[in-house]
């Protein structure tokens, strides 16, 4: 993985830019597995998510470790999820990645008031 020796987020971002699609996919799967195994999120995972948002958003579901339910929710609320990542996910708030993944997995955005409430919070 690109962050195995803790190179710092700037170096990690450079490494992401130099990875091929299969390397990015492997990185996404590895980060998701680590997150779901431990319940903890590395600042590198937040950097990866923001990078994928701009470069390869089709890998977001893998980076979040989503099942079919989570993927469906991500597809239905794609713009909202992108806005949440853009507005809320930073290296300093990396644990938000886990909350986002669990929210999508549980289909919470399908509840009528959830998506509009989050959009209002984003401003």
Question: What would you say this structure looks like, in words?
Answer:
- With 123 residues, this protein is mainly alpha-helical.
- It has one domain.
- It is built from 8 helices and no strands.
- It is globular, with a radius of gyration of 14 Å.
- The termini are far apart.
- The model has no long low-confidence stretch (mean pLDDT 96).
Brief summary:
This protein has 123 residues and is an all-alpha fold.
Write the layout of secondary structure elements.
Blueprint: H1 9-18, H2 21-38, H3 43-55, H4 60-64, H5 68-76, H6 78-88, H7 96-105, H8 114-122
Helix pairs in contact: 1-3, 2-3, 5-7, 6-8
Number of domains: 1
Oligomeric state of the chains in view: single chain
Give the overall shape: globular
Order of helices and strands: HHHHHHHH
Summarize the biggest pleated sheet: none
| Low-pLDDT residue intervals, each spanning 5 or more residues | none
Structural class: mainly alpha
Task: Label this structure with key terms.
about 120 residues; mainly alpha
């Amino acid at each position: 993985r690109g962050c195995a020796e803790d190179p710092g987020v700037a170096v990690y971002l450079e490494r992401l830019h130099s990875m091929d699609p299969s390397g990015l996919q492997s990185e996404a799967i590895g980060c998701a597995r680590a997150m779901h195994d431990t319940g903890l999120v590395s600042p590198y995972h937040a950097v990866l998510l923001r990078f994928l948002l701009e470069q390869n958003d089709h890998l977001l579901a893998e980076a979040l470790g989503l099942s079919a339910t989570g993927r469906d929710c991500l597809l239905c609320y794609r713009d909202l999820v992108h806005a949440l990542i853009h507005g809320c996910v930073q290296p300093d708030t990396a644990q938000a990645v886990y909350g986002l993944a669990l929210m999508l997995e549980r289909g919470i955005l399908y509840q009528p008031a959830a998506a509009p409430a989050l959009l209002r919070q984003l401003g």
